[in-house]
Specification:
Oligomer: single chain
Shape: globular
Number of helices: 5
Strand order of the largest sheet: 1-2
Distance between the termini: 23 Å
Amino acid sequence: MIAVDRLLGTPADEVMRLQDAHLDARGRARRDRITKLQRRLGTEALVGRSFATLAGEAAPWHPTLPIMLADGSTEPASKTLCDLVTVIRDAAILALLQLTGMRIGEIVTLRAGFDPQTGIPTCVTSTRSSAARWTV
């Protein structure tokens, strides 16, 4: 859970901003409907991106994009982004499993998104209890 907690702060925020930059640069069309130009623009939006150094650590939590592989080639930045989004998603699921007691079947049925007025996820509702306390 220490690793999950570490990922769900600044790293999660950075990955979400990076994904938005990538999608904005290439257009938000479905993956199978983007042109080569859109794909290149999306990749260019990722190249050279660096990551924050977390409190108490000496180096950034992730290397600058693109990542150099052992054979001297580079991993496609869009693949790295996809992997990062998956890691953050998995960390969020683990946190929900641990902190709420929900089962995986309940987690996968949660509605995505958030209310722009309150900033609260759309899957969260609040109601006044009979004891005059707020519950979520």
